[in-house]
Amino acid sequence: MLTPAFDLSQDPDFLTVAIRVPYARVSEFDVYFEGVDFKFYAKPYFLRLTLPGRVVENGSEQGSYDADKGIFTIRLPKETPGQHFEGLNMLTALLAPRKSRTAKPLVEEIGASEVSEGGVEAEDEEFDWEIEQVPYEEVSESALNPQYHYGFGNLRSGVFQRLQDELSDVIDIKDPDFTPAPERRQKRLDAELAKFDPDHYLADFFEDEAVEQILKYNPWWTDIYSKMMASLGKSQEQENHAALVSFSEEEKYQLRKFVNKSYLLDKRALRQVYYSLIDILLAYCYETRVTEGEKNVESAWNIRKLSPTLCWFETWTNVHEILVSFGRRVLCYPLYRHFKLVMKAYRDTIKILQLGKSAVLKCLLDVHKIFQENDPAYILNDLYISDYCVWIQKAKSSKLATLAKTLKEVSLTKAQLGLELEELEAAALLVQEEDTASRAGRPVSRQQTPACPPEAGDTEESDSTTSRETEGSDSEQGELSGGESETVRSWQGPFLKERGDLLIDDGVCRNSAVERCGGSPRKPPASPRAPGGSGPLIEELGEQLNSRVQVSGPEDSAAASHSSVQGRGDWQTPSD
C-alpha cells in the first residue's frame, strides 16, 4: 500500500482533507471517520490519520473528486462547531496510530504457577547443574571503560567506533564514546581560545559595512512574526498563529518520509532536548542571515561549527551558557565575526520560538535538507535533526512559549564571553586616536618620512603581494572562513590592508615594515597563539603608547608615528 500526499485545512464548522491519488480507481474507494479516526482506501493507496479533534457523521459531510488533478476532497463536520484543531500541518504526527488508553499493564504473565501455602513455588523439574562454561579471557582495559552518550536526548552511543573515518570531518571532538561531558567542555573552551584571532575581530569591528548590510536582511520569519504581532494587537487569541507558517511540497514530502516514533525521555533528557534546540536554532539563524537565505557549500559547515551540540556533543545546564558558547564561536570561526550578529541571531531565535512548533519545524526541515546534501554532514541528521523533526510535532506549544520567555530574559555582554573584547577595543581605539592626533600635528606620509626611507622598488603593492604570498602558505588559511578563498573579501580600511592578513600571525606581517625602519624584525612564533591570545596584542598596543610619550623632537615623533603605523600591519593607513 502507498501513503498518498495529503493536506488538511479547516473552517469554523468543517475539517477538509485533500488527498492526492492520481492512479487510484475512482470507482472503488472507501472512507471511514469517527471521532479522531480517519481512514481512506483507494487501491493502491491507504491513508490512516489520527485527527487533533473529533469529527462526527451527521449527514452534512461532503466529498468530491477532481479528475484532472487526481485529488479527493472530503469535508468532515466537527463535533463541536467553532473548535480550532491545532497541528494540522504536523503530518508525521497525524500519521501516528492512536495511543492505547487502557490502564492495564502492557506486559502480563499468563499461566503463572501457583504459590504454595508456605510461600515457596512448586518446582516440578530438577535443576540442571550442567551449566555451559567458556574459557577465561582477559578483558582489555578499553572494554572496561564506560561509553558516554550523545545524540538526540543522549540516546546514542558507540556510533563513532564504527564511523570514525567518516566523522572526523564532521565533529571537533575526538573519540566521543570515551570522553565524558566535563572533558568535552574543557577541550571546547581551549580550542575556542586558541582559535580566537584579535586581528580578525578588530577588522570586522572597525570595517563593519558588510556586517551592517547583513543586519538589514529580513529572513522568512520576519514577516510572519510581524503578522503575528499585528494579530495580537487586535486579539489575544494565539491559536491561529500556526496557520501563518506554510510548508512547501518538498517539505511535506519529507514529513511523510519520516518514521514516526515515540521517545522515552526523563526530565533531565527532555531538558537537554529543549536546550540543544536553542543551540541549533541560533546557528541556523546566523547562517540564514549571513547568506541572506541563499544556501551555499559552506552552509553545513557554518551550522555545525557554530553549534557545540552538533560538533562537540555538548550538554547544557542553563540557557545563559548556551548563549555564551554561541557568542564565543561566532567570534572565533566564521567569516563574519561581530557581536551584533550574535545578538541578532539571539533575537531571531526568540521570534521563531514565539511563532510556535510550525516555525521551529520549518527551520529543522531546512537544516535537515542542508545536511542531507552535504557529505558527510548527513550523519548529523541521523544523530539529531531527524529525531528533532519528529519529536517537535508532538511537543507542547506551552513549553516552547516558556522556552522563548526564558531565553528573552537572558542577557549577554562582551565581558561574559571571556575573550577580553572590551580591553582589545579600548586599546585599538587609543592607538587610532594617537595616530590621528599625530597626523594632525604634522602630516606624515609613507614616502616622505625621513626616519624610514623606502628602499628601491619597495611599494605598497609589493608589500601587499608579499603578504598574500605568505598567506598562501599558512596552514590555517581555509579554516577561518570554512574553506573559502581568502579573496572573497578585500579590506582597504584603517586596520587591515587586506583580509588575507588575518590569516598570518601579526609578527610575520610586521617584519618588512620594521626592517625598513631600522629595527630588528620580530621572529614569527613557532606555534599558534596560546589561549587568551588577545592579551599579547593589548600589551603591544600599550607599549606603542608608552613609546610615543618618550619621543622628543619633531622628526623622532614623526618617525615613531610612522613606525607605529607600519608596525601594526597597516591598521591605520596614513593620508597620502
Automatic annotation (TrEMBL):
The keyword Glycoprotein does not apply. GO terms for biological process: box H/ACA snoRNP assembly. It is found in: Cytoplasm, Cytosol; Nucleus, Nucleoplasm. Residues 1-89 form the CS domain. InterPro entries: CS_dom, HSP20-like_chaperone, Shq1, SHQ1-like_CS, Shq1_C. Residues 560-576 have a biased composition (Polar residues). This is Protein SHQ1 homolog. It comes from Acinonyx jubatus (Cheetah).
